[in-house]
Structure formats: C-alpha cells, structure tokens
Amino acid sequence: MVYRISELHFSLLSPDVVKNLARVRVVTADLYDADGYPVEGGVMDPRLGVIDPGLHCRTCGGGIGDCPGHLGYLELAKPVINVLYTKVVYQLLKMVCRKCQKVMVEEGKERKSKRKHKITISDVEANIDLDSVIVQPATCPFCKTKSKKITFVKPYTYYEEKKELSPMDIRERFEKVSDKELTKVGFNGGRPEWLILTLFPVPPVTMRPSITLEGGERSEDDLTHKLVDIVRINQSLKENIDIGAPEFILNDLWELVQYHISTYFDNELTGAPLARHRSGRALKGLIQRLKAKEGRLRGNLLGKRVNFSARTVISPDPRLSINEVGVPESIAQELTLPFYVTTKNVKEAQRLIRNQKANYVIRPDGRRIKITEENKTEIVQNLIEGWIVERQLENGDVVLYNRQPSLHRMSIMAHRVRVMPYQTFRMNPSVCFPYNADFDGDEMNVHVPQTEEARVEAAMLMAVENNLISPRFGGPVIGLDLDQISGIALLTKAETKLSRRDATLLFGLAGFAMELPAGKEELTGKELFSLLLPEDFAISGYRSNFYKNRKIEKKGEDPDEWIEIKDGKLISGIIDKQSVAAENGKLIQKLERMTNPTTAKMFIDRAGRLGAAYLMLRGFSLSIADLDLPPEAQTKTREEIQKAEEEANQLIVQYQTKELTTLPGMTRKESLEAQIMNALASGVSRASDVVETSMKPNDIRNMYLAGSKGSVITTTQMAAVVGQETILGKRIKRGYQKRTLAHYKEGDLTPGAHGFVAHSFKQGLDPFEMMWNIMNGREGLMDKSLRTRKSGYMQRRLINALQDLKVMHDGTVRNAHGRIIQFTAGEDGIDPSKSDWGTIAWKDRLDMMVKE
Amino acid sequence: MMYGYDKMSMDLLQHELVPKHEILSDEEKNELFTKLHITKNDLPKILDSDSVVKKIGAKKDDVLRITRTSSTAGTAIYFRLVIPE
After folding, report:
1. Chain B residue at shortest CA distance from A816
2. Which of the four CATH numbers 2.60.40.10, 1.20.1050.40, 3.90.940.20, 3.40.190.10 does domain B16-83 have?
3. Is the model more confident about A124 or about A130?
C-alpha cells in the first residue's frame, strides 16, 4: 500500500506548546555540582535525556538510543525577538495600526489565498513580502490615525519614528490584533505574538552531547555554552528586576539576553558581533548546524561516511586477475568482517584468534573484547557457539572496489581480495577502463560487505566478470590495452612463427602453463593464441584493425585481413583492437555471450599477459629513425605542403583582387578563411596519405595499425607536417591589431602568420610555429576542464530527473507512481547489456545453429 | 473564420512530422488497461487543445494510439489520454 502525503502544515511554535512538551523548567546556569553530577534545573538536567552509556533517562527510563531526549523551557524575564522572524515582524509592524490594531488593508484589497488548503508559515513569508516591497500605509483606512514611520535596524531593533520599540511593546501590539484581521495579509501560521519569545525552549541534551576528554574533564557542546550564557544573563536580569535596579542596567541586560538568544539561533547575523568560544573560535548556532556543505542537510543527509572502508593509492599488477584487488597487509589487518562461531567452526575461529587474524570478539551479551597477545589464550578457551569473531580480511574475501567520480555502475565492482605487501591497492590494468583510472597518483576505495547476504549479492551482481558488457552500448568495457594489444597483434600476424622452445619460453614469461600442440617443432602465433580459446568457439565476419579502412571486399586473399575463428582455432585475421580492446573487442563480447563470464575473464587475464610477454620476447622499441620517410616520400610530402600553401596564397590574392568566390551564407572574409582551411587541410591529408603508404614497417606503425596507441594523424605530425593550429575551430587571429605577432606585417593573411605549422615535430618547429602549437595546446587544456565540469553537472541533473524510471516486467517503462513513460523500453525493447552493440546479431546465431 | 481559410491551410495530418493518431474504441481501451494493469491516469497525457486532437475530434477521456517512427525500432506505438486543458 502506498500512502500519499496530502498536506503538510507548518506553524509557529507557541509558548503553550513549549510548556506542554517540556519536562524541565530551567532555573540555573550551573551545569554540574561539586561531585560532578548534573544540577537539576540546569541545562544538563538528567531529565532532558541521556548521553552517557549505561545510564537511563529520568523522564522516560530509556537508555542511550531509546530515549529521544526531552525538551526543557526557560522563562524569559523579558520577551525577546526571534531573529529568524525579524522580517515578518517588520512587515507586520508596518501593516498594523498603532491605534485601532487593525491591519491597514482597505476593504476589498485583502490578500486572497490562491490555494484551498490551510495557509502555512511559508505562505506567511511569501505573502508578507520579505523584500519589503509593501509600503506602509500613511493613514489607517479604518480609524484614520496617521501612522508613524517604522524602521528596522539589523539585527533586531525597531524604531517608530525616533522611539525604539521594545519587544514587549511589539508583543503587546500584536496580541491585540484579531485572527480575522491577520487573514487580510495571509498570516495564518499561528499568533503574531509568538514571533516574540517569552518561553525559550531548551533542547534535549541528546542534540548537544558533551564529550569526556582523557583527563575525565568534560567538554560541552557549543549549544550548551550558548544556553548557559542565556540562562545566566536571564537570571541576573530577573534578579535585577526584583531588586528594582535602575532602568539602564535592566536595558543593558535585556539587550544581552537578546544578543545571546539571537546568536544561539544564528551566529552569522549581520550587525551582531560573532559569539566566540573561550578559545576564540566562533560558536555554531542552530542555523550553522544545518547550513552549507558540512551542515546537516548536505553533509549528513545527502552524504554519509561509512565504516569498514579503506582508501589508498593504486598501482598496476598484471599478475592479478581482473576480478582481484591487491590489498596492503596494513589495511587487511584493520578491516574486519564478522565470523559467527558455531559448533562446526569453533576450531577455525580459535585458529583465527591464535594467529592474530582477528581483532575483536563479541560475546552473546554484546560486550566487545579486543584480542591482545596477553588475553588471546583466555579468549580461545572461552570461545563457544554464539560468539562473533571480527576477523581480518583474507585472500578470497569479496570487497567492493570504487573510484570516484562514480559515473556509471562499473565505477563500483566486487573484487576478490589478495593480501599483498607494500602500501598500495593493486589491480589488473584491464579494469582501469571501467573505473577510468590511471596510476599517476589516483586513489581508490575498498568497502567490506558485513553480512552474508551482502557478500553474496556483491559477488553475484557486482563481480567484475559479470560486468564485462556495458549496459550502455552492449560491448565490453574490459579488455586489453596498449602493449597488450600490440603484443597480441604482432603474435597473431601470419608471418609470426615460434620454435617450440620459444613458445615454451613465451608462456613462461606470461606466467601460465599451456599444453603446446604435440609433434610440431614450429608453431605459428595464431596457433599459440588459439590455445587461449575454448574448443568450440567460433567468430568471423569482421576485419582486423590493420585493414579496417579497406574499401574493397575480397575475402580470403590476405590471411591477416578477415577474422575467422572456428572450433577454437584462429584461422585468419590479426587479433587486435577490433577483437580484444575495451569498447571495440568483438571477440571478448562474443566470448562472454557464447560461453560464460568466467571463461571470458580467464581469456582477458591470459591474453593480456601473453601479449605483454610476446613483446618482451620479440623486443619492441622505437627510434627517431622510425620517423624517417624514404627520400622520395619526403620530397613528396614537402611538395604537397608547399602546394597547399601556394594554393592558400593564391586564394589570398584572389581575395585581395576581389575575384574570390563568396560561399553561400558567408562574408567574403569568412569564405576566404574557410577556403584556406580547406586547402591546407587537404594538403596535410595528402601528406598523411604519403606517410601512410610510404612508411617502412616499424613499431610506431604497428601500434597505430593494431589500434593500441597513436593514429595516422599523430604519426604524420611527427614525421611530415603538424598542420593548422586552431583557436575555437578557426585559424589563429588573436594578438595585435591586424596581425598575430609583432613580427608579421599588418593584414598578413598567409598560412604561416595564422597558425599553420609546416614542419613536423621531428624536424622541429620554428619559434612562431611553437607559439601556435602552445596556443592550441592551452585552448585544449582549458576546454577539457570546462567541458568536463559542464557536462558532469548536466549528466547529474539528467540522472536525478530519470533515476526512478524503471523497466517493468511487462516491458513498459514507469516512474515511481507507476505511470507509464514508454510502452516498450527504448521503443525496441532491447536491453543493450544483453545485446550486441545495441542490436541482436541474429545472423551469427543462425549461422551457428545451421551449422549444428 | 476567414473566407477560404480551409483552402489555404494545409492538412495538419499530412505533415511528415505529425505521426498517425487514432482514437481507441471502448473495447480497445479496456483491453489496453487490462493488459497493462493500469487505470487511465497512468497513461501519458495529451491536452484537448492539441491541434491534432482537435482535428481528429477526440474528446476528454479518449485514448489515442500514436504510431511514431523510431530510430531504434522503426515504428513505435504510444498511447495518450486526452485531458481537458
């Protein structure tokens, strides 16, 4: 059953309510007597609730946790304005006639409530305009009395013309206003005189607990300090009234009570000095408890801190499986999980305690005993069924592993613990991608689920191997990266052949045992890779990254072009980015889909290590000479760039002689810019083609062909030409008037004067070119930080708006009320996490079924 | 209305961006409600002041079947309840 809240009603707290709620009348400013017991009638009165463990409440008998605390009250000697309502008081004072106590609103001009329900305090604030837009009427429309100008001086003083209005005066005035009059301005949240405090509510001690310091000395909460001040001054005011002290002394004391009560509510009042602690630190008022980042709302309700968690720097360890996390010994010793002692596992529990693998035991009566070297034998003897041993983390425990910002569900996954030496969390580099982690100082968190249910849930739903496929795009989010891809690609090239001895060495380097095919003295890389695949695995129908951009379709000519795996044997194709990388890896995706997560996990573990191991065996290095193009190619690229520059210069001449074609929707200048950019870009692209076709095979080439790092563009920039540097997508034109740098003539439009870098990084840039490059680099940096912030906030808002939409069992999408948003989820009803890149690859499946 | 207005104005329903709207019969409506275990208030709404609603003459509490083109599924069917403005 769903209950819906139909109405919330807020109103002012009346003195009667305070008195009824209160259990204690506070009369003294003393906290404790000589023996250290709380004084009755003081602000730490034992009837106000319990804060000491083991004691019981004098009012309700509850212990700590049961007793919610009880209110007290303080009778103020003279009324005091509630600072939180000074503006409401101001508005009311202006509207109430000083003579006839009527609200000075002409008949027929009353404020009418737009809503049918009861008007609440927020309506009062909304209706009695807080920004003092309402003007004080000059005369009362009823008794025709001339009104006197009311002024308000922050923080809490009111004047009627020159005369100061005391809270008592104001209260008297408000008391005489009838309820009916008040509805004229929409004041319906109680009586206006309640805006002036006469009975001051003393909050329960449970909301202002004192802390016992080491020496047995007590340190009181800020609110308690404030309350002591209030009670003390109030008492002294009362005494002075009783002995008939002179007016100015009374007024000083009254003002002081007003000050203390005001800062108790809000210690950031404008116009009032900060109330300070003895140490000089500003005290925290009620408002400060709730407000801002560390306040109750943002700090405690919207954000919580947890126990059983740890945080440290991360570092890579490819020897770990992707579902493991290396936990430092020092952290493993600190984090615990409960071990429930039964008749069957007493021995195990005793072993844990004896070996110092547990930190605490909890007896059935709830007592926690710390296990020390001295008492451990005693505890072992007493240990029986029903005790709980808080044991330390050990290998194989399930923990949650997380990196902020947690932008998608793969930002927190369940890993298995491996306790390791040193001080960092260790992880397989393949899971960096879903966490978006690197090792330049990133820190990550570990959380230890404390119940069996939580552990099972984490292990089944959040385990890394059960999150290989992204629910966002239906491809793998975990795969090989960098050298792992380069290695696997080079290994699976057609020409790669290893002797049996080298193959053995390779698996030795990779760190796992494999049975090599019998009877062969020479093994191809494809054969070795096939050892990682399950026997019945098959995939085909896509090109390797090396041939990704090939347009012509001619199957079966090049043994490296088209991927074909049959019966767990790699027949043709290079295994590279298209097969095993995160986001693109079709092989990983299919492996996960057609076999099981564990097999896929094992494959990623092994393939990654095999790839890196093969690079070690083969050797993998770059040199500056790798960027040397053959002489003809070099002249060709030079020519292409020069040609492009000349083309641009001709465009400039045409522009100057006004022969240039103006493009639709553009000014002449814009047309020129667009055409220059085009000419230069196509020049660079032609140079790029030259680089691509003429570059001798080397490891830079291998990297971008395999898709592990770099691209044709970056290689061209290193080997041939950097090209146009841009600011906001346009040629650089910032700088001086009509020129970018002082070294150019005014109005110089040539490519070189506007950010075209005609050299390659290997040749080196001239000073101007370097300037362009740096300008572009700085823009990229600014852009990146601004964009991430903006898009992060946008995404947050979107998620907040959509968070309770849910795909129901009938395939509809509904919100928290059960209202329908979509009749079929995503209109096609496909769950991307169970799809192949958002579609269903029926074809593959059919093919397989037909073959069977 | 202006003389000849209907001749000069285009047919809204023929516009390529306006999907097909049909009014459900009572049986179809009940079938839909029982199939999805919903009441009429759980459906997405459409104001009776909507141009298409006025054009096809749908009244308050009618349910429209809207056949839209979809980038994921080709065509997608939605139902909307007509509510008074």
Report:
1. B42
2. 3.90.940.20
3. A124
